[in-house]
Amino acid sequence: MTTLIRLFALALLVTTAIVASAQLPSRALLVLNKDDNTLVIVDPATNKIVGTAPTGNAPHEVATDGRFAYVTNYGPFEPDQPGNSLSVIDLNTRKETRVDISPLRRPHGIEFADGKVYFTAELNKSIARLDPQGLKVDWLLGTGENRTHMLLLAKGGNTIFTANAESGTVNIIERTSAPEQWTETVVAVGKGAEGCDLSPDGKEFWVANAGDGTVSVIDVSAKKVVHTISAVAKRSNRLKFTPDGKLVLVSDLASGDLVVIDAASRKLTKRVNLGKSAAGILVVPGGSRAYVALTPDGKVAIIDLKSMSKTGEIATGRGPDGMAWAGH
Q1: Inter-residue contact 249 to 237 (CB < 8 Å)
Q2: What is the residue-averaged pLDDT of the chain?
Q3: Tell me, which fold does domain 2-241 have in CATH?
Q4: Which of the four pLDDT bands, split at 50, 70 and 90, describes residue 260?
Q5: pTM, whole model, 2 decimals?
Q6: Average pLDDT value for residue range 229-240
Q7: How crowded is the C-beta side of 184, counted as CA atoms within 13 Å?
Q8: Strand, helix or coil at 174?
Q9: Rounded to 5, what percent of the chain is helix, strand, coil?
Q10: In whole angstroms, what is the distance from residue 42 CA to residue 62 CA?
Q11: Which of 23, 72, 269, 305 has the most CB atoms less than 10 A away?
């Protein structure tokens, strides 16, 4: 009888593993819940959660290579409890590996590029790189700016942009001809520089300034602000281009609005109220729709980008914010 029980238990474990792997859709929406300390996997075809994995304390941003999710564990806002880890999550098995990045503190913005994971470390005024194979930090570069919050890598990885919230600046970091040598240009923008994106043609870098509700437009080649769009939001938080480069989406933490800007004219074209507060934005490849995290509502809004209207909501957990897309 004991042998039969063991065989049954083994068969159950194998079946569970197969089911878990089968549940990962070919395209998946990944959402972090800051208050639940979880990452949830949503099937965008059904808008249902098909998997959940643990993270560290107060996860803020997530990137993925399609097989693994990489999460910055920011930690609570209490000054004596800064986060010092990244979570590496196998999306098939939902298994989390916690990577201690000490002495780096307050990891936030994160991107996967060329087989490496780049992230910011706010308290260290730095950006760093994780080698996913060895799960070790193998590169570090200081920004010299306060609260280096978000980062973005241009195609090819030779230019890195950071938004530095407390300094109200953007760093344009460029690789030189010498191996692993970089130059940095600091560009002053608005107060509380946070959400940011590079135009699809690579010519402009736009920054949402949470402290004054403006958006700064930087000419990348000239390395200077060429336009400031005022009165965009009460607290502009995240910013994303549509894939065709025609529209820019800005979330407003204070009003819960999604603000739509025409990229060419720099004019506001629409405001869509989504809830109490609008935070993280993800535009899917192809540009058919966007997802906007409604953090205090515990939901993610679905936005049709043709009509610029909300078509649905997904209940994801407590405190959704950072998102990523797995698949094409």
Answers
A1: no
A2: 93
A3: Methylamine Dehydrogenase; Chain H (2.130.10)
A4: very high
A5: 0.92
A6: 94
A7: 14
A8: strand
A9: 10, 50, 40
A10: 14
A11: 72
